[in-house]
Amino acid sequence: MTNESKKEILRAVRVGLIVNIFLAIIKLFFGFWGNAQALISDGLNSSSDILISLMILLVLRYSTKKPDFDHPYGHEKYEGLAYFVLGLIFFATSVYIMIDASIAIIDHFQNPSDLEGPHLFTVIVSIVALLVKFFLFRYYINIGKKFHSPTIKADAKNHLIDVYATSFSVVGLTIAQFGFIYFDDIAALIIGFFILRLSIQVIKEAISFLTDEAPSKDEINAIFNAILSVEGVLNVDDLKVRRHMTQRYVDVEIAVRATHTLEYAHKVAETVHHHVEDVFPDVIHCMVHVNPQKNM
Q: Over the stretch 134-185, which tens digit does the pLDDT of each residue have?
Protein backbone atom coordinates (compact mmCIF):
# COMPACT_ATOMS: atom_id res chain seq x y z
CA MET A 1 0.00 0.00 0.00
CA THR A 2 1.39 3.39 -1.00
CA ASN A 3 1.63 6.30 1.41
CA GLU A 4 -0.96 8.17 -0.64
CA SER A 5 -3.51 5.36 -0.45
CA LYS A 6 -2.82 4.89 3.26
CA LYS A 7 -3.45 8.60 3.85
CA GLU A 8 -6.73 8.48 1.91
CA ILE A 9 -7.94 5.42 3.84
CA LEU A 10 -7.08 7.03 7.18
CA ARG A 11 -8.82 10.22 6.03
CA ALA A 12 -11.95 8.20 5.28
CA VAL A 13 -11.88 6.62 8.75
CA ARG A 14 -11.52 10.06 10.38
CA VAL A 15 -14.50 11.33 8.37
CA GLY A 16 -16.48 8.32 9.54
CA LEU A 17 -15.44 8.94 13.15
CA ILE A 18 -16.58 12.58 13.07
CA VAL A 19 -19.90 11.68 11.42
CA ASN A 20 -20.55 8.84 13.90
CA ILE A 21 -19.87 11.13 16.87
CA PHE A 22 -22.34 13.65 15.46
CA LEU A 23 -24.99 10.98 14.80
CA ALA A 24 -24.57 9.31 18.20
CA ILE A 25 -25.02 12.62 20.00
CA ILE A 26 -28.15 13.73 18.15
CA LYS A 27 -29.77 10.27 18.19
CA LEU A 28 -29.24 9.70 21.91
CA PHE A 29 -30.08 13.27 22.91
CA PHE A 30 -33.29 13.50 20.90
CA GLY A 31 -34.11 9.84 21.55
CA PHE A 32 -34.17 10.28 25.33
CA TRP A 33 -35.78 13.71 25.08
CA GLY A 34 -38.42 12.51 22.62
CA ASN A 35 -39.04 9.12 24.30
CA ALA A 36 -38.07 7.22 21.13
CA GLN A 37 -36.70 3.72 21.83
CA ALA A 38 -35.85 3.08 18.16
CA LEU A 39 -33.82 6.29 18.02
CA ILE A 40 -32.03 5.41 21.28
CA SER A 41 -31.15 1.94 19.90
CA ASP A 42 -29.92 3.57 16.71
CA GLY A 43 -27.86 5.95 18.84
CA LEU A 44 -26.27 3.05 20.72
CA ASN A 45 -25.42 1.53 17.36
CA SER A 46 -23.72 4.78 16.33
CA SER A 47 -21.87 4.82 19.66
CA SER A 48 -20.41 1.39 18.87
CA ASP A 49 -19.41 2.82 15.48
CA ILE A 50 -17.28 5.41 17.29
CA LEU A 51 -15.33 2.65 19.05
CA ILE A 52 -15.01 0.84 15.74
CA SER A 53 -13.61 3.92 13.97
CA LEU A 54 -11.07 4.50 16.77
CA MET A 55 -9.96 0.87 16.59
CA ILE A 56 -9.66 0.98 12.80
CA LEU A 57 -7.47 4.08 13.01
CA LEU A 58 -5.15 2.31 15.44
CA VAL A 59 -4.99 -0.97 13.51
CA LEU A 60 -4.54 0.55 10.04
CA ARG A 61 -1.51 2.49 11.24
CA TYR A 62 0.11 -0.81 12.16
CA SER A 63 -1.24 -3.21 9.52
CA THR A 64 0.03 -1.04 6.65
CA LYS A 65 3.65 -1.13 7.88
CA LYS A 66 6.14 -2.83 5.59
CA PRO A 67 7.48 -6.33 6.38
CA ASP A 68 10.25 -6.42 8.99
CA PHE A 69 12.44 -9.01 10.71
CA ASP A 70 9.70 -10.13 13.12
CA HIS A 71 6.95 -10.04 10.50
CA PRO A 72 8.54 -11.06 7.16
CA TYR A 73 5.10 -11.63 5.61
CA GLY A 74 3.89 -8.16 6.57
CA HIS A 75 1.40 -6.89 9.16
CA GLU A 76 -1.82 -7.24 7.15
CA LYS A 77 -3.33 -9.87 9.43
CA TYR A 78 -3.65 -7.30 12.18
CA GLU A 79 -6.38 -5.91 9.97
CA GLY A 80 -7.97 -9.38 9.95
CA LEU A 81 -7.85 -9.38 13.75
CA ALA A 82 -9.55 -5.98 13.78
CA TYR A 83 -12.15 -7.39 11.39
CA PHE A 84 -12.87 -10.17 13.91
CA VAL A 85 -13.16 -7.74 16.82
CA LEU A 86 -15.57 -5.64 14.73
CA GLY A 87 -17.79 -8.68 14.41
CA LEU A 88 -17.76 -9.24 18.18
CA ILE A 89 -18.66 -5.59 18.83
CA PHE A 90 -21.54 -5.83 16.34
CA PHE A 91 -22.72 -9.04 18.02
CA ALA A 92 -22.66 -7.58 21.55
CA THR A 93 -24.47 -4.43 20.37
CA SER A 94 -27.19 -6.45 18.62
CA VAL A 95 -27.83 -8.67 21.65
CA TYR A 96 -28.14 -5.64 23.95
CA ILE A 97 -30.55 -3.84 21.61
CA MET A 98 -32.74 -6.93 21.06
CA ILE A 99 -32.98 -7.73 24.78
CA ASP A 100 -33.81 -4.12 25.65
CA ALA A 101 -36.43 -3.86 22.86
CA SER A 102 -38.01 -7.21 23.80
CA ILE A 103 -38.35 -6.14 27.44
CA ALA A 104 -39.93 -2.84 26.35
CA ILE A 105 -42.44 -4.62 24.05
CA ILE A 106 -43.50 -7.00 26.85
CA ASP A 107 -43.81 -4.10 29.26
CA HIS A 108 -45.99 -2.17 26.81
CA PHE A 109 -48.45 -5.04 26.49
CA GLN A 110 -48.51 -5.66 30.26
CA ASN A 111 -48.98 -1.98 31.11
CA PRO A 112 -50.77 -0.39 28.13
CA SER A 113 -51.99 2.55 30.20
CA ASP A 114 -48.42 3.69 30.82
CA LEU A 115 -47.67 4.10 27.14
CA GLU A 116 -46.08 7.36 26.09
CA GLY A 117 -45.34 7.70 22.40
CA PRO A 118 -42.30 9.28 20.79
CA HIS A 119 -42.47 12.95 19.83
CA LEU A 120 -42.86 14.03 16.21
CA PHE A 121 -39.45 15.70 16.04
CA THR A 122 -37.77 12.28 16.52
CA VAL A 123 -39.05 11.31 13.06
CA ILE A 124 -37.31 14.36 11.57
CA VAL A 125 -34.09 13.55 13.41
CA SER A 126 -34.21 9.96 12.08
CA ILE A 127 -34.70 11.18 8.50
CA VAL A 128 -31.70 13.52 8.79
CA ALA A 129 -29.60 10.69 10.26
CA LEU A 130 -30.69 8.38 7.44
CA LEU A 131 -29.55 10.82 4.74
CA VAL A 132 -26.20 11.43 6.45
CA LYS A 133 -25.58 7.70 6.87
CA PHE A 134 -26.47 6.95 3.25
CA PHE A 135 -23.89 9.41 1.93
CA LEU A 136 -21.28 8.03 4.37
CA PHE A 137 -22.01 4.51 3.12
CA ARG A 138 -21.50 5.55 -0.52
CA TYR A 139 -18.24 7.27 0.41
CA TYR A 140 -16.90 4.14 2.16
CA ILE A 141 -17.96 1.87 -0.71
CA ASN A 142 -15.91 3.97 -3.15
CA ILE A 143 -12.86 3.99 -0.86
CA GLY A 144 -13.14 0.23 -0.21
CA LYS A 145 -13.31 -0.61 -3.92
CA LYS A 146 -10.47 1.76 -4.78
CA PHE A 147 -7.97 0.43 -2.23
CA HIS A 148 -9.28 -3.13 -1.60
CA SER A 149 -9.23 -2.67 2.17
CA PRO A 150 -11.13 -5.45 4.04
CA THR A 151 -11.64 -3.28 7.11
CA ILE A 152 -13.03 -0.36 5.10
CA LYS A 153 -15.32 -2.78 3.24
CA ALA A 154 -16.49 -4.23 6.56
CA ASP A 155 -17.21 -0.76 7.89
CA ALA A 156 -19.03 0.03 4.62
CA LYS A 157 -21.26 -3.01 5.29
CA ASN A 158 -21.79 -1.66 8.79
CA HIS A 159 -22.87 1.70 7.35
CA LEU A 160 -25.26 -0.10 4.97
CA ILE A 161 -26.81 -1.95 7.92
CA ASP A 162 -27.09 1.43 9.66
CA VAL A 163 -28.99 2.74 6.63
CA TYR A 164 -31.46 -0.15 6.91
CA ALA A 165 -31.65 0.22 10.68
CA THR A 166 -32.33 3.95 10.55
CA SER A 167 -34.93 3.33 7.82
CA PHE A 168 -36.81 1.03 10.20
CA SER A 169 -36.39 3.67 12.88
CA VAL A 170 -38.06 6.23 10.60
CA VAL A 171 -40.90 3.82 9.77
CA GLY A 172 -41.42 2.74 13.38
CA LEU A 173 -41.41 6.28 14.73
CA THR A 174 -43.77 7.44 11.98
CA ILE A 175 -46.30 4.66 12.67
CA ALA A 176 -46.02 5.40 16.40
CA GLN A 177 -47.30 8.93 15.70
CA PHE A 178 -50.67 7.39 14.78
CA GLY A 179 -51.09 5.67 18.14
CA PHE A 180 -49.32 2.37 17.44
CA ILE A 181 -46.67 3.19 20.00
CA TYR A 182 -45.20 -0.32 20.30
CA PHE A 183 -43.99 -0.04 16.69
CA ASP A 184 -41.21 2.13 18.07
CA ASP A 185 -39.86 -0.86 20.01
CA ILE A 186 -40.53 -3.28 17.17
CA ALA A 187 -38.34 -1.07 14.97
CA ALA A 188 -35.62 -1.22 17.64
CA LEU A 189 -35.89 -5.04 17.67
CA ILE A 190 -35.55 -5.19 13.87
CA ILE A 191 -32.48 -2.95 14.08
CA GLY A 192 -30.96 -5.46 16.50
CA PHE A 193 -31.62 -8.35 14.08
CA PHE A 194 -29.93 -6.47 11.24
CA ILE A 195 -26.83 -5.84 13.35
CA LEU A 196 -26.79 -9.50 14.46
CA ARG A 197 -26.84 -10.67 10.85
CA LEU A 198 -23.95 -8.34 10.02
CA SER A 199 -21.94 -9.58 13.02
CA ILE A 200 -22.20 -13.21 11.88
CA GLN A 201 -21.11 -12.33 8.34
CA VAL A 202 -18.11 -10.32 9.55
CA ILE A 203 -16.98 -12.96 12.07
CA LYS A 204 -17.15 -15.74 9.46
CA GLU A 205 -15.14 -13.73 6.95
CA ALA A 206 -12.60 -12.67 9.60
CA ILE A 207 -12.03 -16.32 10.52
CA SER A 208 -11.34 -17.12 6.85
CA PHE A 209 -8.75 -14.29 6.79
CA LEU A 210 -6.99 -15.50 9.94
CA THR A 211 -6.92 -19.23 9.10
CA ASP A 212 -5.34 -19.08 5.63
CA GLU A 213 -8.50 -20.33 3.95
CA ALA A 214 -8.24 -21.24 0.28
CA PRO A 215 -9.97 -18.98 -2.26
CA SER A 216 -12.76 -20.20 -4.54
CA LYS A 217 -12.34 -23.29 -6.73
CA ASP A 218 -12.70 -21.13 -9.84
CA GLU A 219 -9.74 -18.98 -8.76
CA ILE A 220 -7.60 -22.05 -7.98
CA ASN A 221 -8.49 -23.60 -11.35
CA ALA A 222 -7.56 -20.38 -13.13
CA ILE A 223 -4.13 -20.40 -11.44
CA PHE A 224 -3.73 -24.12 -12.23
CA ASN A 225 -4.42 -23.55 -15.94
CA ALA A 226 -2.10 -20.54 -16.06
CA ILE A 227 0.74 -22.65 -14.65
CA LEU A 228 0.05 -25.53 -17.02
CA SER A 229 0.15 -23.14 -19.98
CA VAL A 230 3.83 -22.31 -19.37
CA GLU A 231 6.15 -23.99 -21.87
CA GLY A 232 8.11 -26.82 -20.26
CA VAL A 233 5.53 -27.61 -17.56
CA LEU A 234 4.33 -31.17 -18.15
CA ASN A 235 2.09 -31.42 -15.11
CA VAL A 236 1.04 -29.65 -11.92
CA ASP A 237 1.78 -32.21 -9.22
CA ASP A 238 0.48 -30.12 -6.32
CA LEU A 239 -1.05 -26.67 -5.92
CA LYS A 240 -1.90 -24.82 -2.73
CA VAL A 241 -3.34 -21.30 -2.62
CA ARG A 242 -4.05 -19.45 0.62
CA ARG A 243 -5.65 -16.13 1.36
CA HIS A 244 -3.57 -13.41 2.96
CA MET A 245 -6.33 -10.89 3.64
CA THR A 246 -7.22 -9.62 0.14
CA GLN A 247 -4.09 -11.11 -1.42
CA ARG A 248 -2.85 -14.64 -2.13
CA TYR A 249 0.17 -16.89 -1.61
CA VAL A 250 0.73 -19.74 -4.09
CA ASP A 251 2.81 -22.91 -3.51
CA VAL A 252 3.09 -25.21 -6.51
CA GLU A 253 4.97 -28.34 -7.52
CA ILE A 254 5.49 -28.69 -11.27
CA ALA A 255 6.79 -31.62 -13.28
CA VAL A 256 9.37 -31.13 -16.05
CA ARG A 257 11.10 -33.66 -18.29
CA ALA A 258 13.64 -35.62 -16.23
CA THR A 259 16.28 -35.40 -18.99
CA HIS A 260 16.39 -31.58 -18.87
CA THR A 261 19.29 -29.83 -17.19
CA LEU A 262 18.98 -28.17 -13.78
CA GLU A 263 19.48 -24.82 -15.48
CA TYR A 264 16.52 -25.44 -17.80
CA ALA A 265 14.30 -26.63 -14.92
CA HIS A 266 15.20 -23.49 -12.96
CA LYS A 267 14.30 -21.34 -15.97
CA VAL A 268 10.88 -23.02 -16.26
CA ALA A 269 10.24 -22.52 -12.51
CA GLU A 270 11.21 -18.87 -12.76
CA THR A 271 8.89 -18.40 -15.73
CA VAL A 272 6.00 -19.95 -13.77
CA HIS A 273 6.80 -17.72 -10.79
CA HIS A 274 6.65 -14.49 -12.82
CA HIS A 275 3.74 -15.61 -15.01
CA VAL A 276 1.44 -16.31 -12.04
CA GLU A 277 2.32 -13.02 -10.32
CA ASP A 278 1.83 -11.07 -13.57
CA VAL A 279 -1.50 -12.68 -14.52
CA PHE A 280 -2.93 -12.55 -10.98
CA PRO A 281 -2.14 -9.17 -9.33
CA ASP A 282 -3.55 -10.41 -6.00
CA VAL A 283 -0.80 -13.03 -5.72
CA ILE A 284 1.96 -11.68 -3.47
CA HIS A 285 4.35 -14.54 -4.08
CA CYS A 286 4.40 -17.79 -6.04
CA MET A 287 6.77 -20.44 -4.69
CA VAL A 288 7.66 -23.09 -7.29
CA HIS A 289 9.15 -26.54 -6.62
CA VAL A 290 10.33 -28.64 -9.58
CA ASN A 291 9.91 -32.42 -9.83
CA PRO A 292 11.18 -34.72 -12.56
CA GLN A 293 8.30 -36.18 -14.55
CA LYS A 294 7.09 -39.41 -13.05
CA ASN A 295 7.29 -42.48 -15.25
CA MET A 296 3.90 -43.36 -16.68
A: 999 999 888 877 877 766 777 787 788 788 878 888 888 888 888 777 777 7
Give the model confidence (pLDDT) of 83-123 as tens digits: 788 788 888 888 888 888 888 778 777 776 655 668 888 88
Task: Provide the CB-side half-sphere exposure for 115 (13 A, CA).
Answer: 18
Task: Give the predicted TM-score (pTM) of the model.
Answer: 0.67
Rounded to whole angstroms, the Cα distance separating 229 from 296 reads: 21
**What's the distance, CA 6 to chain centroid?**
17
N residues, the chain: 296
Q: What CATH fold (topology level) applies to the domain 3-210?
A: Alpha-lytic protease prodomain-like (1.20.1510)
What one-letter code names the amino acid at 106?
I
The CATH code belonging to domain 217-292 is: 3.30.70.1350
Q: How far apart are the first and last CA of the chain?
A: 47
> CA 187 to CA 168: how far, in whole Å?
5
77 Cβ partners below 8 Å, 6+ apart? 63, 209, 210, 244, 245
Specify the 3-state DSSP secondary structure of 130: helix
DSSP 131-164: HHHHHHHHHHHHHHHHHT-HHHHHHHHHHHHHHH
